[in-house]
Amino acid sequence: MPFATKIQAPGIKALISSGYANDTVVARFREHGFDGVLMKPYDFESLGRSLTEVMGR
């Protein structure tokens, strides 16, 4: 089920950020309403790449 913000604002773009690669929400992020994943720890370059990728969709 998508997270509440996506239900209220379906056009919003959302990334999930986690330090746990084996997290089920991270593994199936699209099923949970997220548009991308940003794994921790991250730097400005990887944040920028993730944001550019998600905003381009």
What do you see in this structure?
This protein is an alpha+beta fold and 57 residues long. The protein has one domain. The protein contains three helices and two strands; from the N terminus they run H-E-H-E-H. It has helices at 4-8, 24-27, 44-55, and strands at residues 15-18, 36-39. Strands 1-2 form a two-stranded parallel ribbon. The chain starts with a helix and ends with a helix. The mean pLDDT is 88.
**Beta-strand percentage?**
5-15%
Count of DSSP E strands? 2
Using only C-alpha atoms, the radius of gyration works out to: 11 Å
Low-confidence stretches: none
Largest sheet: 2 strands, parallel
Structural class call reads alpha+beta
- What order do the SSEs take from the amino end to the carboxyl end, as H and E? HEHEH
Domains counted in the coordinates: how many?
1
Keywords:
57 residues, 2 strands, two-stranded parallel sheet, alpha+beta
Which helices and strands appear, and what pairs or packs with what?
Elements: H1 4-8, E1 15-18, H2 24-27, E2 36-39, H3 44-55
Parallel strand pairs: 1-2
In short:
By secondary structure, the protein is an alpha+beta fold. It has helices spanning 4-8, 24-27, 44-55; strands spanning 15-18, 36-39.
